Amino acid sequence: QVQLVESGGGLVQSGGSLRLSCTASGSIAGIYNMDWYRRAPGEARELVATNIDGGPPNYADSVKGRFLMFEDNKKNTVYLEMTDLKPEDTAVYYCHADQRVSPVQILSHWGQGTQVTVSS
Predict the structure, then answer these.
(1) CB 48 within 8 A of CB 58
(2) Would you call 109 helix, strand, or coil by DSSP?
(3) What is the spatial distance between Cα 31 and Cα 98, in angstroms, rounded to a whole number?
């Protein structure tokens, strides 16, 4: 079983910064892709940043140049550094990981989410 635990959310003023972290624990062998998603009230879930097989991260157009995703493999942790935050960034942010458990089976894991609120 894999557990993903996010932290770092909170309330920040427009233009401010936050760093989210997501730590994976448990049976983490086979995890090859970790992402950050967000869901704003009344909106669909949005992929914010993804890092497939250790390649360079890809970002949603809405956050390019403002958000940075990076990893600390020794700590099994992925971070989302968010700068120049805007009210439209307000959402619950979720960490996600894909795990290959067999040649034909991939499991999907989600964290519990962390609230980010940006005031204008």
Answers:
(1) no
(2) strand
(3) 6
